[in-house]
From TrEMBL:
GO terms for cellular component: membrane. Residues 8-19 have a biased composition (Polar residues). One of its GO terms (molecular function) is phosphatidylinositol bisphosphate binding. This is Myomegalin. Residues 319-328 have a biased composition (Basic and acidic residues). It comes from Platysternon megacephalum (big-headed turtle). Gene3D superfamilies: Alpha-tocopherol transfer, CRAL-TRIO lipid binding domain, N-terminal domain of phosphatidylinositol transfer protein sec14p. PANTHER family: ALPHA-TOCOPHEROL TRANSFER PROTEIN-LIKE, ALPHA-TOCOPHEROL TRANSFER PROTEIN-RELATED.
Length: 339
């Protein structure tokens, strides 16, 4: 599906709920949020149900005018993810959408052939999973365990692919779009040799995607069992973190009581002092693998049109690259020094 053909099928830019009636080949959006979440979205995200479809159409019109060959999906539900992630600021939502595609096109090792069946080994290892219970704010908890990865089995990019697909699955839920997610990262057993795979290039790419290239709200990052080497890892990623995100990192060490102040014991597995039983990765793996066809359909719409070059859709980052050169030179020595 090309960006041009999508844009020629858009409805007039007049904002009213009836606009969707002019889009017979595009799924009609039906809100699945509870009254409480509608109120939360209004308060926190500036989302007004009576204006929602008008806002989506406005973003669609901007895509068609400014990036006609972006090759993006223009369905209401898809565009709404980006509006919610940027609190219905049209310009910022458009930039996020463009960045979303730029990230996908600039890192083929991660995004080529991206589907659940291609990352079965990562899923089976338990490197990334989603806890079965929501936290007190209605947020999913993504659990990442780097010690489950054996570098000789597959490159670090496979882990990133698994995390990305996990986030793609989660963001399909409107509840997640409004509430956001929480990350729980267990760094137990992470050695210097393993940490060295997460160098400045990978760090910058991953942070760029999570901060500016994916429509999800990361509300907290809880780090537990971090060894001394984590000081080096954090030294690598901190220069790329926005202050708001950096302030959402919580380092608990081996203090589970500290962790329980952020995440209730009732949702945590026994491994982390919780009461919800043993950590079970099977349920999430099954859910993700069962979504293969959904991903094939969704990602088939995110293609680069044959008649355009990647640079048309990419955001220039020359100034940012220059600013980042100096801190990057000193990262590796910091990593070894902190070990």
């Amino acid at each position: 599906m090309s960006g041009d053909s999508d844009c020629t099928r858009t409805s007039p830019s007049v904002g009213s709920p009836s606009d969707n009636e002019f889009l017979p080949d595009r799924p009609r959006y039906v809100c699945s949020l509870s009254p409480d979440l509608i109120a939360k979205a209004r308060e926190e995200l500036q989302e007004k149900p009576e204006w929602r479809l008008r806002d989506v159409q406005a973003l669609r019109d901007m895509v068609c005018k400014d990036y006609p060959t972006l090759g993006t999906c223009l369905d209401d539900a898809f565009l709404l993810r980006f509006l919610r992630a940027r609190k219905f600021d049209y310009d910022r939502a458009l930039q996020l959408l463009v960045n979303y595609h730029s990230c996908r096109r600039s890192w083929p090792e991660v995004f080529n052939n991206l589907k659940p069946s291609a990352i079965k080994a990562v899923l089976a290892s338990g490197f990334v999973t989603v806890l079965p219970h929501l936290d007190t704010e209605g947020r999913h908890v993504v659990c990442i365990r780097p010690d489950r990865w054996t570098p000789s089995n597959y490159p670090i990019t496979e882990n990133i692919r698994a995390i990305y697909l996990t986030l793609e699955k989660l963001i399909q839920s409107e509840e997640t779009q409004v509430n956001g997610i929480v990350i729980l990262a267990d760094y137990k057993g992470v050695s210097l040799s393993k940490a060295s795979h997460f160098g400045p290039f990978v760090a910058k790419k991953v942070i760029g995607i999570l901060q500016d290239g994916f429509p999800i709200r990361i509300k907290a990052v809880n780090i537990i069992n971090e060894p001394r080497i984590f000081k080096g890892i954090f030294a690598i990623i901190k220069p790329f973190l926005k202050e708001k995100i950096a302030n959402r990192f919580f380092l608990h060490g081996s203090d589970l009581n500290s962790l329980h102040q952020n995440l209730p014991q009732r949702i945590l597995p026994e491994e982390y002092g919780g009461t919800s039983g043993k950590l079970d990765i099977a349920a999430w793996n099954e859910l993700l693998l069962a979504s293969e066809e959904d991903f094939l359909h969704d990602f088939s719409q995110l293609v680069l049109p044959d008649d355009s070059s990647p640079s048309e859709a990419l955001v220039s980052g020359d100034a940012e690259e220059k600013q980042s050169e100096e801190p990057l030179r000193g990262m590796k020595p910091q990593l070894y020094y902190c070990y």
